[in-house]
Write a structure and sequence with these properties.
single chain, Aminopeptidase, 2 domains, 8-stranded mixed beta sheet, 7 helices, 28% strand, globular, protein-N-terminal-alanine acetyltransferase activity, EC 2.3.1.-, acyltransferase
């Protein structure tokens, strides 16, 4: 399994026990862990245990986590990696976190691009997934920038910690994916554009809209996706006649 990756500004290497203090500073920040599968750490030993756990998964080819280092300063600025590796189904799920000090510099998409390149080119996987909570707007923008496709809205997916149940969106990107960019929400909502698969099933959107647990905001997202998909589907059918 690969132990390091490089991009223009970043160096990604396998996590080391000596990274514990730097990672503790990141993982103890509630603004960073807010949308992660952990509660913010309160002791450096928690970071040590987490690094050991992640490296054990890597040894068994089940997952791998990289420490992200800024080349210019040689500072540890976060972590990213493959949360799960499913070679049988040729897919993986990615995760990432960046120190708040380094937000807004484009480091997240740069790191993820390295993960995508390695997953498709060297691991020979066909699909990369990312699960994001609806409120995590910045992370969704990152995935959108990298041409991830909105797949579905999953409910009550339990976090690894016992923090809470949360709603999540599932995004994915494929090797040979034809994307149809669709405007999802109007300016009054002030959000972003999803890219959805043209082959998405209309029925799935109907079910989503009917879910009573979906918040008003998520309802608008689902409804807009359904309307835009229906228009696109309808136009195509007319052209084919």
């Amino acid at each position: 399994m690969i132990t390091e990756l490089h991009s223009q500004r970043l160096y990604l290497r396998k996590m080391k026990a000596s990274d514990s203090l730097s990672m503790f500073k990141i993982w103890s920040d509630p603004d960073v862990t807010k949308f992660m599968n952990i509660s913010n750490f309160t002791d450096e030993n928690e970071a040590k245990d987490m690094i050991q756990f992640l490296n054990e998964l890597a040894q068994n080819n089940k997952a791998i986590r990289f420490t992200i280092i800024e080349k210019e300063s040689n500072h540890i600025i976060g972590s990213c990696g493959y949360n799960s590796l499913d070679f049988e189904n040729s897919k993986t799920e990615i995760g990432y976190d960046i120190s708040k000090t380094f937000w807004g510099k484009g480091y997240a998409p740069e790191a993820i691009s390295s993960l995508l390149d390695y997953a498709f080119t060297h691991l020979k996987l066909n699909r990369v997934e990312a699960k994001v909570e609806p409120a995590n707007v910045n992370s969704i923008k990152v995935l959108e920038k990298l041409n991830f496709t909105f797949v579905r809205y999953s409910e009550k997916e339990r976090k690894i910690s016992w923090k809470a149940y949360r709603f999540k969106y599932l995004f994915e990107i494929n090797k040979r994916l034809i994307l149809v960019p669709l405007p999802i929400l109007n300016q009054s909502v002030g959000f972003f554009n999803f890219c959805i698969k043209f082959k998405s099933l209309t029925q799935s959107w109907k079910k989503l809209i009917k879910k009573s647990e979906v918040s008003l905001f998520s309802h608008l997202v689902a409804q807009s996706c359904y309307i835009q998909f229906y228009k696109c589907e309808r136009t195509t059918k007319l052209k084919n006649k």
